[in-house]
């Protein structure tokens, strides 16, 4: 087959793309009041799009009742966030002014609860963070292990999901998912990049991809994107080394590390240049852009009953707090709507 996909296992590609759905289907609680007022005239169309996306995603092979439609396999941890001195200059949010506890869920991207961590189709990995604020409130960050989302709009994401559902590996090429990837080079790059297997969750970088607006005590507003960078550095396994690892090695490795010391990440906010797109999460801002060091996330232990915590925990990108606002990105509000549908379905099983 003389196509751009000859070096990609496209049966695996379909599975890898299931993991893509993480940002739109991981279970979450929706903060409906976080949506900006100017988007109210689009609420019905957004609701319809969210329903179509969700209805399509749950048709994807591997989705199991009682589990998240994606990122079904994970582990819940506890830790702290210590803000940097610079954090409060960017945002007046309470957790950027003093240390707070955090709950963090790491996950594989697949909808299959028993997928081996070694599988090239287990990506993208996920990191969801809940900051527990001094006043009893909370705010979330949802990130994944790829810098740049798979597509640039909700409509494209729906088309992607439809192409996955319509793909039958027993049928001749080109498959619908192949046609989609051929027309969307950034989506193909996303699939190929996410086949890498990290040495550890502790050596994996994570990216929120959506832009938010940070507001400081003086009322100054600045758009930015979160990056979560491992203090131990970014390290991936070779194909040979990955094949030699046990199925649950990422989870077991994290438990072993936490038994002796904390696992640390730097939380940074990358700032856009004047010509950077702020409505397309698939477009990566160059690494030479200015960043603000917001502080250190220290993971200190695995939650006592991680399995039970996974069933009750829900994160959403619109769960914000004073000092952090939605930008002109349409994705967080759309994702929140899909998350709400996912939570309802999971809790009914």
Describe the structure.
By secondary structure, the protein is α+β, with helices and mostly antiparallel strands. The protein contains eleven helices and nine strands. Strands 4-3-2-1-8-7-6-5-9 form a nine-stranded antiparallel sheet. A hairpin with a 5-residue loop joins strand 3 and strand 4 (138-144). Helix 6 (176-183) crosses helix 7. Mean pLDDT is 86; it is low at 1-44.
Work out the strand percent: 15-25%
Helix content: 25-40%
Output the structural class. alpha+beta
Distance between the termini: 43 Å
Q: What's the β-strand tally? A: 9
Describe the structure concisely.
The protein is α+β, with helices and mostly antiparallel strands and 349 residues long.
Write the layout of secondary structure elements.
Elements: H1 10-20, H2 22-25, H3 43-57, E1 74-83, H4 87-90, E2 100-107, E3 126-132, E4 138-144, H5 154-166, H6 176-183, H7 185-193, E5 206-215, E6 221-230, H8 239-243, H9 249-260, E7 263-270, E8 291-302, H10 306-312, E9 324-326, H11 331-348
Helix pairs in contact: 3-5, 3-11, 5-6, 6-7
